[in-house]
Amino acid sequence: MIRSFRALLIRDLKLAARVGGSGMMGLIFFLTIVTLMPFALGPDLNLLSRIGPAILWIAALLATLIGLDRLFQADQEDGSLDLLRLAPVPMEVVVLAKVAAHWLVTGLPLAIAAPFLGLLVALTPDAMLAMVVTLLVGTPALTFIGAIGAALTASLRRGGLILAILVLPFMIPTLIFGVSAANAALGGTVPFATPFLILVALSLIAAVVGTVGAAAALRSGES
Amino acid sequence: MIRDLANPTRFMSLSRALLPWVSGLAALLLVAGLYMVWFVAPADYQQGETVKIMYIHVPAAWLSLFFYSLMAVSALGTLVWRHPLADVSQKAAAPIGAAFTLICLVTGSLWGKPMWGTYWQWDARLTSMLVMFLIYAGILALWRAIEEPNRAARAVSILTLVGAVNVPIVKFSVDWWNTLHQPASVFRLGGPTIHPSMLVPLLVMAVAFTLVGVALHLSGMRTEILRRRVRTLTILEAERLDAQAA
Hints:
heterodimer; A: mainly alpha; B: mainly alpha; 7 helices; about 0% strand
């Protein structure tokens, strides 16, 4: 089971590296959203640095949606998903491997890029560190929640928009505690650990519910 | 009883017999309830006449949770027990629950303006109810997106069960977060805290709303069964014409 997990992970990473696409697109989208914010809010650096963590979190959340619709759809279209269904590995392992690969390609770069984008909204070094840590811990939750939506809409021709409508409400708790942990690191009455530990818990819960839910959705999707 | 109803034909005949009675009773109770609300129930000493919005708002909120729970149980019925009518019940419940959620949000907002001085506040109960509405909207969108009824039902079931985490959050939000929305005053340990002169009309309205919901749900299920029969017959007819042409 470990071997098939590793094989699938490497396959998806290779596909992402050679076909290219969603990882880079997500990063560019992330940058674009952060760039748009000062145009809407005005270039007041004090204001931007105060709401910077919120801007970065919203942008990261939207950026994880990019490419999520292709998570299972590409395999559904070329038939590999049918082969995976027939394979002796449980569907949960397949989902876990695919989600892990997807997160490495799309979620991890967001966390790494966060400090550089933080410069644009005048974050302090402390806040940048907090952004990296919270995104590192929080984006897996977003990817796992998104995986349920991706599995449900895998066979739909125009699944992208409906996917966003389905999964965004479920991402609200992650957003709340991600932003409040990042803000707590900037000072304030709440200690950093309280919202941060809840964020960790949300990621762990999402990992379980997302894997089981997406696997069930993929199994039920076979026609 | 549940197993007997697995036969759609039996369900159709039973629901045809039941529906006029449920609808009639719902109409009767609704008239009685509205009469009590307008002419019998006293105005609140603090809220004045605006308290009467509550008689719509509270039952709508209860029913929005009730229909979500019904959908969640039906989703289990679809996925686990493979009950043939579970997905019909699920599909019929979604728009009704969404409508009650919307009624609850709108009436609450109208009541909030004179009482709290604002149409909207990012309070835990209000926000979780809004999320509830978004989840209902997502479920309705997914029903429409997948054409084949059985596959749509299984996909929606998974989404419904994942979304069920929000039901306890809505219910207990006023206890967990001490915010603007007033805490529960009817179903609580130690008995209701509202005066019988207001409790009785509220309960009558709640029963009336429930019956309206049940009547809508029954007729929604009947429509859905007929729609599926039409779909099957259309496919059969198309296949027959296809065979004829070939």
